[in-house]
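Sample 3 of the quickstart, ligand GN1:
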Amino acid sequence: MLKVLKQFTITDFSIEPLGNGLINSTWLVHSDHKKFVLQKINTTVFTTPENIAFNIDLLSTFLQKYHPTYLFIAPLKTTTGKTMVKEEDGYYRLFNFVPNSHTIDVVNTPQQAFEAAKQFARFSKLLVQVDVGILKNTLSNFHNLNLRLQQFKAAIINGNAKRIEESKELIAYLIAQKSIATIFENRKSGFKIRVTHHDTKISNVLFNAYENGLCIIDLDTVMPGYFISDVGDMMRTYLSPVSEEESDFSKIEIRLNFYNAITEGYLTEMGEELTAKEKKSFHFAGRYMIYMQALRFLTDYLNDDVYYTCAYPTHNLVRAGNQATLLQKFNLIK
Ligand code: GN1
Ligand code: MG
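Result:
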């Protein structure tokens, strides 16, 4: 880290871990009354980090030109003008810490859900003029549900036999929900491809002291995609008073006023951009993303936790059960 920070002319600093991302590693750096965020990209997951840098540079240039007041958190440049530093153990980036900002881990008020939805929608809206075809895929097939289903089916056959046996009921439930993938195939011709964030959980929004949304962060999966990825992941992560980490599933609930807040916040910015078919697919967006996350967690459990960071042996199983319960409850509201 010393070597990395030196390239940004930071030599005197203290450092502490930051956030709870499951993929990249993040630190808060204090130096001379200024704070920075240092991040190491997980290159097992993001195998082409230069694609991330390409997209962010392109969008940053576009926003500076057409929307100069928009708060876009682009990585800082090294003394030689690079936004990414390659070291033996991976790629690093440094960001300014946004003053007077904070993140939250659970959505406590409909206002927070509204603000977050508005922030993500605003981002897509300001970028509608960008030719999405020029952007790179930073993670190919990231939200491809058919592929996630195939990977799940492979894990049920080739995965850890003991874990497969232990997850029997959950596997059966998720297989029984597979028509969600077919519904998507039937609807997708009515969905437009736009600049999409793809990770709209609440901890990726910066708030000010008055709980107003300031900006969005974690831009590694910004790439062409469908609005259902962003709206769906908000449904997945803002509706329940407990997160995907909760092991007491009786605490999982769908808060309808939060559902309305997401819809209203998103439409405030994207209302004129969405097609009629897209506007009818808000509920479907939630089903799509909750289902996909349940599949991804259980697939990883069956494959012996090769992807998500785990703190205890059944962590991915608990997360998958949590998301399956959320899906069950979410299916009931329409
Ligand atoms: C991962 O690392 P983090 O927390 O930003 C994952 C998301 C999942 C999320 C579940 C690149 O995001 O897709 O929804 O965990 N990101 C990647 O918490 O796989
Ligand atoms: Mg992320």
